[in-house]
Amino acid sequence: MKRGLALILSLAILLSLAAGCKNKDSKKVIVGGKQYTEAQLTSEVIAKLIEAKTDLEVERKYDMPSAICFQSLKSGDIDIYPEYTGGMLLAYLKQEIEPGTAPQTTYDLAKKGFKDEFDLVVLESMGFNNTYANAISREFAIANNIKTNSDLAPFTSGLSYGAEHSFFDRADGFENMCLTYGYNFLEKNIVKMDVSLKYQSLRQGQMDVCCVYTTDGELAEFDVVVLEDDKHFFPAYYCCPVIRQDTLNKYPQIREALAPLKDCVSEADMVRYNALIGSGKMDIPSAAEEFIKEFKLMG
Fold first, then answer.
1. Up-side HSE of residue 48: CA atoms within 13 Å toward CB?
2. Dist. CA 8–CA 296, nearest whole Å
3. Looking at the structure, do residues 124 and 136 belong to the same domain, yes or no?
4. 0.85 exceeded by the pTM?
5. Closest by Cα among 87, 11, 12, 27 to 251
6. Shared domain check, 117 and 44
């Protein structure tokens, strides 16, 4: 009886050791993702490319708040996730971005800062800029020949302006935008509102001007005009995969697998994909597959 128990225990220990060795030797990367549609789509594209073009196992950890995603990358809870150049500088490196700063300069500063301060590697930009913009109704734009932020300035004292709460607290937000363009919105006409209400407010005439993002899926649905930021006030927010240096050292094949992402997609393309997912016509995995196919990312 004792010999039988001893044999069972020995087998259990051997199996446990074997499982431990397997886990230790397993080649796995963890792809993180933020909470909103575009971030999860780009994360899923990254995950699928790594799965398809390397022998690595991929685990997904999506739906994380932005700050948690970044902290998880620093701590090693995830290996890679897509981040935006302007956000890297403003939110994490705590560097101001002067109006008119070239997108390439923003990228270069973010790349150097992330490597120097966090030992994180910023890979090549995917090519689209999800930054802030002002939007007005097409009817108002045509009637007054408004195409740029500067064109809007003479009308602002009689117009209402809506944006999410955070936009009014940012260095690249409402106050400095008004100083740059000479806007004179009256206090009573300034509305802090939920993101989901902005486009409906423009459509229904409740708001004259709203702050939007340049890759919002709603831009494909609502008949609005996005004004040109002709003084280049808003920072560049180009999307780039960001990976831990130790992960890249261990699995250098990831860089080659993700190389086709460089400048692969435009703002208009991202608007279209965000709209397809937001409308329920595609889910994240199927949209990522179509994205990879459309932009020929498999080579």
1. 20
2. 54
3. no
4. yes
5. 27
6. yes
Instruction: Give yes or no for a contact between 224 and 195, defined as CB atoms under 8 angstroms apart.
Output: no
CA separation for the pair 290, 116 (Å, rounded): 36
Q: Are 247 and 108 part of one and the same domain?
A: yes
Tell me, what DSSP letter sits at residue 124?
Answer: -
Domain containing 260 — which CATH number? 3.40.190.10
Same domain, 155 and 69: no
d(CA 202, CA 197): 9
Domain co-membership, 184 together with 259 = no
* Cα–Cα distances in angstroms (integers) from residue 226 to residues 17, 89, 132, in the given order: 60, 25, 10
Q: Which of 1-10, 68-77, 205-214 has the lowest mean pLDDT?
A: 1-10
3-state secondary structure of 99: coil
**Taking the CA of residue 123 as centre, how many other CA atoms within 13 Å lie in the half-sphere pointing to its CB?**
24
In this predicted model, what pLDDT tens digit does every residue of 120-149 receive, in sequence order? 999 999 999 999 999 999 999 999 999 999
- Same domain for 143 and 210, yes or no, is yes
Total domains in the chain come to: 2
Strand residues in the chain grouped as ranges (E): 28-34, 57-64, 80-84, 120-122, 132-137, 161-163, 190-192, 209-213, 224-226, 239-244
Kindly provide the b/e burial profile for residues 204-241, where b requires at least 16 CB atoms within 10 angstroms of the residue's own CB.
eeebbbbbbbbbbbbbeebebbbbebeebbbbbbbbbb
Q: Is the pLDDT of residue 29 over 90?
A: yes
The whole domain housing 76 covers 28-129+237-294
Q: Do 151 and 80 fall within a single domain? A: no
pLDDT digits (tens, 9 = 90+) for 14-27: 444 444 443 444 79
Q: Do 36 and 217 meet the contact criterion of CB atoms below 8 Å apart?
A: no
CATH number at residue 161: 3.40.190.120
84 and 177 belong to one structural domain: no
